[in-house]
């Protein structure tokens, strides 16, 4: 009883949680971008997005297994699997938009929202039929090394995830802020009707937004399965909800907000999971990690519903 | 002069209200054509049908010899009709320059694939878009505000910016919905010079306006709408003396 819990956390453990949080946060950010882009352009919360991420992960896994069995060298397997998953998810995103949401473009807001949940269930069930209910272990395709920084371990997988996520997000910002397509997207997001009157084909832009968001989702799906080493048909649900939380935290509709919100949420979760045992005297363990995301969601919705960087929610809602 | 736009028997209802009834009019290439009428006469409704914002109930529009695909705004824009709005509708959170650059969307074409595969070509085109947008900002006189967000521009400048954005789509017909609304005498005079310049550059202008002096001084021909019906169409001097017009629009005192 005399030796109590350490009051000041050790640097190595703290740093370890930050590394874990940044990795997780990078993935959340990529998924959150998919939610926020679609919301920004058409005011719809695409609850099927988490399932797109799941399909991306499982497609990449299936492709990787087939290629490995055919004797293709691992680095090439990874690239090809990512490519196939991205293309499949992009096509899926376009199909969802065309089939499920476009017919409801002018319907009351509740209709597309319920449709989104429906699409989510359909995708989950289809994935269950195709891939079964089992957890699939993901082959190690990335280097397995790790580095030690101030006593904390950072793996090469984590470094690669962060680097790829960061460069992808930079690329997306360039696309949105510096190109003709990005301009059309921003214009459509401000007003689809006015953008159309200026010659922008809003249908095309909305579809491309889904395509891009789904492509980012595929990448995130591959990352998350590489990080945890497993994939299953149900993985999109919780991941999707958390990424949605990240998007709300950052201010839904705001790209930079999704990135900041994702990273923050990842760090909050990791720190929470790391210290919840100490804080509660061992009553609650790190399996309560998921609580933090939804606690954050509730707090944000109560105190700052427009999110950290958002401003458009009120006028859109 | 040959006709640029032929509207035939346009009708539009909102519930039980007949907002437009059998409106036919012809705009000739190169003219400034005024559309006037009391409040609620259907002028803006006609604009909205013409530019594809509202689906029409009856009638058709032939533009530059081709039937116009009404109900599809970006097709209408592609055909060569651009407009401004009575209540300014800029992309408020984009810069003035970007607003005009969006207008170039239609007349440029490097797509997603192109931007990735042919990077240098995309760059070249982007530079051309930017150059043209600057020219248009200069043309309407707001180039010094290029990098400001549209919502931070003064009211009169926002009106000019809307015109620049519309011109960026390279319209054959520029439709201006009450461009002088809220402007003082000096600004209105400048606007008049601007519109005359646009016409001189070969763009036909369709003008909805409340400022009767501006319309009568500027327009080659004028049509008058009243309760959704066209009651007159002629040169200003004739329309001005039309008893029906005087009665409906100008009021007895102006006779």
TrEMBL record, chain A:
Biological process (GO), any one: L-isoleucine import across plasma membrane
Subcellular location: Cell membrane
Keywords: Amino-acid transport, Cell inner membrane, Cell membrane, Membrane, Transmembrane, Transmembrane helix, Transport
TM spans (from-to): 52-70, 76-101, 113-132, 157-176, 205-224, 230-249, 256-276, 288-306
One GO CC term on file: plasma membrane
Domain of life, source organism: Bacteria
Entry coiled-coil feature ranges: none
A UniProt-annotated Pfam family: BPD_transp_2
CDD domains for the chain: TM_PBP1_LivH_like
Primary location class: membrane
Record's bilayer topology term: Multi-pass membrane protein
MF-aspect GO terms: L-isoleucine transmembrane transporter activity; L-leucine transmembrane transporter activity; L-phenylalanine transmembrane transporter activity; L-valine transmembrane transporter activity
Similarity-based family: Belongs to the binding-protein-dependent transport system permease family. LivHM subfamily.
Protein name: Amino acid/amide ABC transporter membrane protein 1 (HAAT family)
Organism phylogeny: Bacteria, Pseudomonadati, Pseudomonadota, Betaproteobacteria, Nitrosomonadales
UniProtKB/TrEMBL annotation, chain B:
Protein name: Amino acid/amide ABC transporter ATP-binding protein 1 (HAAT family)
Keywords: ATP-binding, Cell membrane, Membrane, Nucleotide-binding, Transport
Any one biological process term the GO annotation gives: L-isoleucine import across plasma membrane
SUPFAM superfamilies: P-loop containing nucleoside triphosphate hydrolases (SSF52540)
Residue ranges of domain ABC transporter in the record: 5-252
Gene Ontology molecular-function annotations: ATP binding; ATP hydrolysis activity; L-isoleucine transmembrane transporter activity; L-phenylalanine transmembrane transporter activity; L-valine transmembrane transporter activity
Source species of the chain: Sulfurisoma sediminicola
Gene Ontology CC terms, in alphabetical order: plasma membrane
InterPro entries to which the protein is assigned, alphabetical: AAA+_ATPase, ABC_AA/LPS_Transport, ABC_transporter-like_ATP-bd, ABC_transporter-like_CS, BCA_ABC_TP_C, P-loop_NTPase
């Amino acid at each position: 009883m005399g030796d109590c819990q350490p009051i000041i956390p050790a640097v190595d453990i703290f740093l370890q949680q930050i590394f874990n949080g940044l990795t997780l946060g990078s993935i959340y950010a990529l998924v959150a971008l998919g939610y926020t882009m679609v919301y920004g352009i058409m005011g719809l919360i695409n609850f099927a997005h988490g399932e797109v991420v799941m399909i991306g992960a499982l497609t990449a896994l299936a492709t990787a297994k087939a290629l490995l069995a055919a004797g293709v060298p691992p680095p090439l397997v990874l690239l090809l699997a990512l490519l196939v998953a991205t293309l499949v998810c992009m096509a899926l995103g376009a199909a969802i938009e065309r089939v499920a949401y476009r017919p409801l473009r002018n319907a009351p807001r509740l209709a597309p929202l319920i449709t989104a949940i429906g699409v989510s269930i359909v995708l989950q069930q289809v994935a269950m039929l195709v891939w079964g209910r089992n957890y699939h272990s993901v082959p190690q395709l990335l280097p397995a090394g790790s580095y030690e920084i101030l006593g904390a371990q950072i793996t090469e997988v984590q470094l690669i995830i962060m680097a790829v996520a960061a460069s992808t997000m930079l690329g997306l910002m360039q696309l949105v802020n510096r190109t003709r397509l990005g301009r059309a997207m921003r214009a459509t997001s401000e007003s689809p009707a006015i953008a159309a009157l200026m010659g922008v084909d809003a249908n095309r832009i909305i579809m491309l937004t889904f395509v891009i968001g789904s492509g980012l989702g595929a990448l995130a799906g591959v990352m998350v399965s590489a990080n945890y080493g497993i994939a299953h048909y149900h993985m999109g649900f919780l991941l999707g909800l958390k990424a949605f939380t990240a998007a709300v935290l950052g201010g839904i509709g705001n790209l930079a907000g999704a990135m900041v919100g994702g990273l923050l949420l990842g760090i909050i979760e990791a720190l929470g999971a790391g210290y919840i045992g100490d804080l509660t005297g061992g009553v609650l363990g790190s399996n309560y990690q998921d609580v933090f995301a939804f606690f954050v969601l509730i707090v944000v919705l109560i105190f700052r519903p427009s999110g950290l960087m958002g401003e458009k929610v009120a006028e859109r809602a | 002069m040959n006709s640029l736009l032929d509207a035939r028997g346009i009708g539009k209802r909102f519930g039980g209200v007949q907002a437009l009834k059998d409106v036919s009019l012809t705009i000739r290439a190169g003219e400034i054509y005024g559309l006037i009428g009391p409040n609620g006469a259907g002028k803006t409704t006609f604009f909205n049908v013409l530019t594809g914002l509202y689906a029409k109930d009856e009638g058709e529009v032939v533009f530059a010899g081709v039937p116009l695909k009404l109900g599809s705004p970006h097709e209408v824009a592609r055909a060569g009709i651009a407009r401004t709005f009575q209540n300014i509708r800029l992309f408020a959170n984009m810069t003035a320059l970007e607003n005009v650059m969006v207008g170039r969307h239609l007349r440029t074409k490097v797509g997603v694939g192109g931007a990735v595969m042919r990077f240098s070509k995309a760059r070249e085109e982007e530079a051309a878009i930017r150059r043209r947008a600057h020219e248009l900002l200069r043309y309407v006189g707001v180039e010094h505000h290029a990098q400001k967000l549209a919502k931070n521009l003064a009211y009169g400048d926002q009106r000019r910016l809307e015109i620049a954005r519309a011109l960026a789509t390279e319209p054959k017909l520029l439709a201006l919905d009450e461009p002088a609304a809220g402007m003082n005498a000096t600004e209105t005079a400048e606007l008049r010079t601007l519109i005359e310049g646009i016409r001189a550059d070969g763009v036909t202008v369709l003008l909805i306006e409340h400022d009767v002096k501006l319309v009568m001084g500027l327009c080659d021909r004028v049509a008058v709408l009243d309760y959704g019906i066209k009651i007159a169409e002629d040169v200003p001097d004739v329309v001005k003396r039309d008893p029906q017009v005087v009665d409906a629009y100008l009021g007895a005192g102006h006779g």
